[in-house]
């Protein structure tokens, strides 16, 4: 069948006719192979020789010969991947040399099978559009899977084998076969046609194949270019020889070889032009992101591989435009392609114009909503910085600097790398080391550390030093671990040429130094960075141990000196005292450094005596606790020093308390200060140390009783006394639980706890708010500790210590919450704008109120306080949702899990309170609360059945409305949580007391009853739906006739048709419908539509009149006989629809995430930007040389796809599955 066409091509007298017939032959031959299940592929010569039987296909996947049989087609060989790709290609080339028609048929079958088709069917005498349409109709799109997207390890490897096969095929054919004007023409035409299909599988597979084919051709072109250069040099060298030594035969051979290479180069470039124009310029803006990503990834490979031909503005502009793609994976491919280019500094001159044009976009992508894209954008900016210091402005750099404080660690680490390259990398290390030696410094990093401190101060994020250190840890470890240089800057006087560190700079340097010590010792990022502690590798573990030993050996000697210099500065001392937490304390004894330990203890003692700040005292207490660990030999030495210190402080405290109580109201400021200072120190130490042997509870209790009786105790003393007493009780409980307590011990502790709870309860009425808040928190904590859970876990002997709060205490706790938590902030404070300190105070006050509410909520959750007390909290849910919504919601969820019925009754109680005593806000209506309460019970109706199957009684007669009838409007929101049988039960009970006169009442007072009845009928099989009207419309309304539930799909169609009708009623201005349009022919830019969907979405003709057949079809769901009644019922139901819509929106809003969505413009804003780009870039789309004779005519017929006008015109055709090149939002 091929011979007549071949003969016709051989004897064609016209080159143009030759090209035209040749093209027609190829396309007809190629696309005459689509797939069905009743045909089998032809055998190759090798298969004929072996006589192997062909396997059939099942569900589009070819089968092999029996179980474990050898693959029988090229597709199967590549899919299995058991043979080396080199040998597979060599076998195919051998088959091609024997019979190129059959071998080419196998290759065509390979590409079409890779696209997911099922079999082979011959199509003869068909035009291209008909062939493509037929293949599309034959393709099974039900599954949606094809080889490139199928799951499983075999298919994941198939993609790699598929790409490798194409590359190896071109590499093996590059010297002869690809120039025969048969193989490549056929393959390129096939891939071009498939890439223009409306079927995703065809476009995806053919685009991937074409791009890999183009990459292989680019490699061939590069080799040809190298050979041409070598041949030219040889020719020039031979020609420049003297006439007697010149070899003319060699010159002729070189000329012939150069001519042959030039012809091959022309052929390769024409092939690349065909692929680029016919496939790339269409598919790089395809609607499928994966196809766009393939194109961008491969063009990056071309520009890097053959930069002389491809690295110019004509190709770079495609990458630049695609930086605005709306899909993160495509933007990611663009950035990675550019990274490969900017890595080579020799290419920077060719990238200069691109950098200037798209630099702003790349910088803005550092804030991309996709973290992976942001990371790669920062890395690209770093490469640009390495290549050219002047490419980035100060503003560009500042946009990257602040990302070192990002909570996403990869982004922060990438920004840290950029910061290191820009500010902290030494340009001339040798010269800087010599300068440091001349100044007497052991390290040349002094200036870099000063710069780091300045950067930290200028960033104005002083509480995030740990984040800054973590960001720089991977890139600047040498600088951050230079603790010797840091201590030199802090301890030694500046030498000539160095500036003195200011007080702020010293504080910042100490903070950064402590953070570097923590990072080195713990070897994991700070809180908020990362998902948790990961397992360290052996190398990382060794590095951690070495760093810990290094910092311990250094700071064992340096820390006492630092404390001695800065002992008067509380901020610096509090930071320095964190360093011993990261010591390897065995070094003290192993290295015989006890004298340094004594020096450290001496400095800590001096700090305790000088400071009364809470953070400093807690740091000292924690340091003593770490040094007193029993596992270290230094414990005895530290314990003696600690005991001496506590003895002295306790003695001073006891005498000060006696003096204060004796003088009573006549006490002066010195007496108050002495008590307060010693009590603060003891409270801080009692938190981490067991000080029960000093019996601090007695003195504190005396202070509290005196304050209650006299009412003149300073609030700070009262707060500290409450806290110290609390610690004393807890340490006593620890002793009892760890040992075998006697009955006397239990009675003594119970007496102490009871007296302290009574004091705290009395403090709730104190005039000082801090005292009341402290007493409330301690009450809640102690009630939790000494609750019924104390005896769990086999500790029944502690039953005597269990305390259950009486109703009086519960009421006082609840009253405290209502008075001090659910309050509005001062209007004057809210009106103050720009006052950061005031804003911080308001945030701190809110945090304190949240802690108070959380403490009380825990008592409710663990059944310490009766659950009905939660009703007063639940009723504030909507009003204070922004402040306490998460706490109340969690409390609601936990109480529901413990007791569903009691929780439901508590909810009803809270709703009754809202109904009878509203909170006077426009959003705090009963219906607003109801939707939220119903949502908290989840979707499992069986689990929540008991909580909602209530039965309500009407205490009044049938002719009068019940007193709380309006509450049924609230209960209607809970009807959806009932099972169908429970709905029937409640409905039948409702029907018992509903008389016929009630059913006919339409006054506003009866509307909640109608609403509740309808909510019970929703979801049932049958039922009477009451029409709900109010006021004047009640006379014309009537009860609807019984009918079945409207199907869901029909109700959706009703809503759609109603919206269409409404738009027609609004007039022609709101909806313009064109006249009769002809169905467009299927092209590459029109997706195949389902005929049913097309019929459903077809709008009526503009000329259609009311009552026409179209209108009748739209209204057929109502029935012509009820059309008038339907209009009335629709008006009557507007009341319920409008009222329920508000509630549903509120419930839906509570179900969604509270976080605000992130919007980012990832596409270019207008077509004008595209035109501006084209003015800047020289539009040289053709690859160097003109097309060869067999493609010149076809190339001339194609439009210039690089031209912006052609692209814009093409948009009108390509809106269905093609994304606009200009980057306009789609």
Automatic annotation (TrEMBL):
Residues 1027-1039 have a biased composition (Low complexity). One of its GO terms (molecular function) is chromatin binding. It is found in: Nucleus; Chromosome; Chromosome, Centromere. Residues 1069-1085 have a biased composition (Polar residues). PROSITE patterns: SCD. The chain crosses the membrane at residues 16-35. Keywords: Cell cycle, Cell division, Chromosome, Chromosome partition, Coiled coil, Membrane, Nucleus, Transmembrane, Transmembrane helix. Residues 37-68, 1018-1085 are annotated as: Disordered. Residues 280-365 form the SCD domain. The keyword rRNA processing does not apply. Residues 244-274 form a coiled coil. Belongs to the SCC3 family. This is Cohesin subunit SA. It comes from Oncorhynchus tshawytscha (Chinook salmon). The lineage of its organism: Eukaryota, Metazoa, Chordata, Craniata, Vertebrata. The gene is LOC112240048.
């Amino acid at each position: 069948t091929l011979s007549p066409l071949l003969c016709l091509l051989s004897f064609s007298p016209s080159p143009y006719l030759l090209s035209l017939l040749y093209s027609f032959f190829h396309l007809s031959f190629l696309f005459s192979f689509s797939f069905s299940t009743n045909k089998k592929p032809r055998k190759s010569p090798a298969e004929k020789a072996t006589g192997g039987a062909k396997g059939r296909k099942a569900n589009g996947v070819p089968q092999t010969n029996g179980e474990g049989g050898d693959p029988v087609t090229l597709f199967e060989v590549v899919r299995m991947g058991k043979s080396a790709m080199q040998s597979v290609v060599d076998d195919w080339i051998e088959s091609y040399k024997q019979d190129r028609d059959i071998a080419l048929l196998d290759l065509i079958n390979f590409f079409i099978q890779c696209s997911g088709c099922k079999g082979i069917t011959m199509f003869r005498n068909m035009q291209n559009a008909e062939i493509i349409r037929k293949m599309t109709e034959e393709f099974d799109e039900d599954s949606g899977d094809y080889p490139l997207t199928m799951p499983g390890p075999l298919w994941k490897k198939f993609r790699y084998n598929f790409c490798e096969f194409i590359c190896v095929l071109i590499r093996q054919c590059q010297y002869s076969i690809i120039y025969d004007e048969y193989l490549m023409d056929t393959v390129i035409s096939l891939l071009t046609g498939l890439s223009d299909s409306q079927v995703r599988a065809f476009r995806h597979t053919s685009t991937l194949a074409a791009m890999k084919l183009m990459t292989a051709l680019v490699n061939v072109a590069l080799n040809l270019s190298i050979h041409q250069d070598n041949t030219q040099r040889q020719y020039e060298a031979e020609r420049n020889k003297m006439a007697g030594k010149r070899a003319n035969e060699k010159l002729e051979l070189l000329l012939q070889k150069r001519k042959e290479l030039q012809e091959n180069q022309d052929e390769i470039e024409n092939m690349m032009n065909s692929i680029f124009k016919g496939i790339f310029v269409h598919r790089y803006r395809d609607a499928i992101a994966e196809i766009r990503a393939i194109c961008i990834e491969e063009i990056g490979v071309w520009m890097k591989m053959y930069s002389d031909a491809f690295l110019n503005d004509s190709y770079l502009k495609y990458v630049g435009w695609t930086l605005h793609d709306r899909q993160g994976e495509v933007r990611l491919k663009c950035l990675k392609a550019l990274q490969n280019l900017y890595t080579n500094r020799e290419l920077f001159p060719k990238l200069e114009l691109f950098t200037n044009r798209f630099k702003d976009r790349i910088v803005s992508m550092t804030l991309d909503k996709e973290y992976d894209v942001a990371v790669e954008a920062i890395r690209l900016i770093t490469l640009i910085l390495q290549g050219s210091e002047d490419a980035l402005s100060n503003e560009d750099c500042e946009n990257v600097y602040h990302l070192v404080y990002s909570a996403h660690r990869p982004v922060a680490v990438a920004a840290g790398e950029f910061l290191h390259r820009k500010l902290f990398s030494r340009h001339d290390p040798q010269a800087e080391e010599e300068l440091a030696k001349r100044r007497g410094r052991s390290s040349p990093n002094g200036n870099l550390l000063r710069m780091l401190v300045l950067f930290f101060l200028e960033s104005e994020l002083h509480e995030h030093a740990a984040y800054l250190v973590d960001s720089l840890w991977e890139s600047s470890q040498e600088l951050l671990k230079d603790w010797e240089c840091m201590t030199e800057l802090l301890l030694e006087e500046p030498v000539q040429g160095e500036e003195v560190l200011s007080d702020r700079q010293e504080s910042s340097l100490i903070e950064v130094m402590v953070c570097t010590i923590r990072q080195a010792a713990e070897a994991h990022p700070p809180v908020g960075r990362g998902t948790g502690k990961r397992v360290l590798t052996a190398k990382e573990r060794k590095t951690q141990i070495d760093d810990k030993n290094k910092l311990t050996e250094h700071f064992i000697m340096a820390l006492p000196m630092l404390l001695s210099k800065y002992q008067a500065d509380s901020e610096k001392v509090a930071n320095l005292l964190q360093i011993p937490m990261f010591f390897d304390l065995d070094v003290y004894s192993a290295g015989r450094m006890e004298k340094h330990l004594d020096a450290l203890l001496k400095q800590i003692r001096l700090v305790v005596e000088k400071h009364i700040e809470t953070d400093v005292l807690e740091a000292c207490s924690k340091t003593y606790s770490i040094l007193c660990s029993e596992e270290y030999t230094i414990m005895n030495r530290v314990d003696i020093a600690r005991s001496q210190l506590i003895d002295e402080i306790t003695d001073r405290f006891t005498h000060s308390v006696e003096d204060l109580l004796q003088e009573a109201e006549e006490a002066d400021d010195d007496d108050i200060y002495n008590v307060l200072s010693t009590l603060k120190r003891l409270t801080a130490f009692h938190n981490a140390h067991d000080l029960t042997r000093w019996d601090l509870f007695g003195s504190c209790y005396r202070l509290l009783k005196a304050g209650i009786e006299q009412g003149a105790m300073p609030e700070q003393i009262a707060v500290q006394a409450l806290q110290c007493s609390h610690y004393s009780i807890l340490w006593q409980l620890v002793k009892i639980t760890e040992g075998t307590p006697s009955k006397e011990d239990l009675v003594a502790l119970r007496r102490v706890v009871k007296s302290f709870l009574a004091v705290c309860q009395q403090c709730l009425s104190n005039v000082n708010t801090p005292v009341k808040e402290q007493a409330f928190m301690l009450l809640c904590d102690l009630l939790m500790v000494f609750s019924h859970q104390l005896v769990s876990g086999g500790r029944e002997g502690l039953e005597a210590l269990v305390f259950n709060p009486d109703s009086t205490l519960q009421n006082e706790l609840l009253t405290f919450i209502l008075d001090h938590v659910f309050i509005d902030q001062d209007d004057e404070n809210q009106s103050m704008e720009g006052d950061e300190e005031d804003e911080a105070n308001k945030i701190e006050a809110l945090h304190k109120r949240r802690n108070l509410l959380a403490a009380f909520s825990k008592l409710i959750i663990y059944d310490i306080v009766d659950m009905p007390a939660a009703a007063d909290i639940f009723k504030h849910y909507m009003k204070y949702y922004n402040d306490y919504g998460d706490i109340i919601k969690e409390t609601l969820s936990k109480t529901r899990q413990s007791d569903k019925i009691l929780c439901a009754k508590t909810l009803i109680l809270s709703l009754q309170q809202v109904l009878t005593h509203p909170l006077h806000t426009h959003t705090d209506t009963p219906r607003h609360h109801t939707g939220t309460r119903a949502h908290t019970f989840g979707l499992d109706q069986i689990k929540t059945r008991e909580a909602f199957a209530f039965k309500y009684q009407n205490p009044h007669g049938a002719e009068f409305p019940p007193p709380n009838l309006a509450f049924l409007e609230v209960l209607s929101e809970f009807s959806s949580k009932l099972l169908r049988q429970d709905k029937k039960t409640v409905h039948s009970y409702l029907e018992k007391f509903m008389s016929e006169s009630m059913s006919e009442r339409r006054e506003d007072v009866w509307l909640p009853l109608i609403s509740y009845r309808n909510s019970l009928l929703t979801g049932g099989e049958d039922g009477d739906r009451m029409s709900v009207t109010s006021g004047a419309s009640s006379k014309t309304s009537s009860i609807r006739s019984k009918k079945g539930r409207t199907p869901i799909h029909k109700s959706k169609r009703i809503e759609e048709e109603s919206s269409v009708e409404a738009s027609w009623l609004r007039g022609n201005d709101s909806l313009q419908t064109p006249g009769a349009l002809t169905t467009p022919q299927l092209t590459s830019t029109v997706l195949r539509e389902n005929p049913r969907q097309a019929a459903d979405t077809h709008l009526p003709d503009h000329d259609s009149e009311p009552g026409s057949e179209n209108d009748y079809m739209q209204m057929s769901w109502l029935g012509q006989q009820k059309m008038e009644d339907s209009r009335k019922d629709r008006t009557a139901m507007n009341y319920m629809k409008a009222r329920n819509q508000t509630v549903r929106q509120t419930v839906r809003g509570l179900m969604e995430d509270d976080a605000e969505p992130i919007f980012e413009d990832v596409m270019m804003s207008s077509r004008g930007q595209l035109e501006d780009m084209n003015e800047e870039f020289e539009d040289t789309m053709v690859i160097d040389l003109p097309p060869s004779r067999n493609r010149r005519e076809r190339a001339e017929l194609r439009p210039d796809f690089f031209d912006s006008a052609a692209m814009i015109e093409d948009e009108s055709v390509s809106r269905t599955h093609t994304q606009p090149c200009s980057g306009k939002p789609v």
